[in-house]
Amino acid sequence: MQEGGDFSTAMAVLASALGCGLLMGIERERRKGDGPFRALAGVRSFALASLSGAAAALIGSMALVAVVGVFIAALAVTAYARDDSGDPGVTTEIALLLAYLIGVLCARDQLVAAALAVAATGLLAARDSLHQFARDWLQPGEVRSGLILAALFLLVAPLVPDAPLWQGLFNPWVVMRLLLVLLVIQSLAHIGRRLLQARQAMALSALASGFVSSTATIASLGMEVREGAAVRPQAGAAVLSCVATMAQIVVVAAAVQPLWLARLWLPALAGGLVAGAWGWWRVRGVPAGPEDGAAARPLLPPDTAMFKLRDAALIAALLTAVQVGVHLLTRWQGDAGMLAGALLAALADVHAAAAALLAQAGPASPSAPAIGQALGAALLVHAGSKSAVALASGGWRYALAVAPGVLAHTLAFVGMLALQ
Question: Where would a tag sit more exposed on the chain, N or C end, judged by fewer CB atoms within 10 A?
């Protein structure tokens, strides 16, 4: 029985390795070419390399695995050295060595090996698309932003201490997490605007801009109304940008106090649905073509960075300062001080108010009801602030078209939060 079990296991490993090798080899065979300039390996070479790895691993000798791996690598190096084509690459050579390693991996974990084979084949098959993306679509500013974001995630963030300082008033890791969240949001908004630029989609453009600043989006659309743009679609786009406000409250909660997510996701969803429905109702029927005036203008100038690190750092500092201020007011005046601090913060930025309130305590604490009431009051104050911005930027007709939608989605959030 034991021998039969070992035989069936070995056959399963070899079959998995053969499938992985064939998968990668078929893709390489289609690009191998013909004649004296054809590439190193095709379907048979990849299948044999993967089977060799599985067989070496089944024998159980690590020395044999290493020797065969060196042999495969030597074949790849020799083929590359003898390549007389005008544009020699190393993709096939690296892929052949990877096929061998995948065969070795099949003896340990067939699922991981199969997943790796599929991922590698996908990368090989997407050569033209990846080259076009890297050379033509991706801009230098986006490359620089990506490098900065990767450095912050991989190098800086792991070094930031996760410990409360100043009697719990300040945690460097929370600030770093807020900064990373803001940068990711700006990057996603930038990518969304790049993708939407070709479609001239006014409503979705406003929604993407709202992730940078909903208040600034409302002001920008209002100024276009003063320049002669139609009130109805501009107001609808302004309300649509408030969907980002609801989403960012959830993001801030996840960054500052994740325990609040269970209480806030449903109110945020209700508020976002109301804002989306209201805004789309105002925007629907507006054509999205080159004749749309404001909608036809480019959303982004060429070679724009995905985010502004300085602005994100200032916002993170503002959120932290407001959080510390509200915490001090709460210690001094209790719930009344927390409410006053949140309302003052909401006049400028509702996310700062939300971060400061949610950082006070979790949803199961005795102060949770007061935090919920203060958050609802802060959102109502912020709705009034947005309406005032609409009035100042676009006039009373624009404000009358924007304010009901802003107030309606805010009341949906506050009402759902109160019911919970």
Answer: N
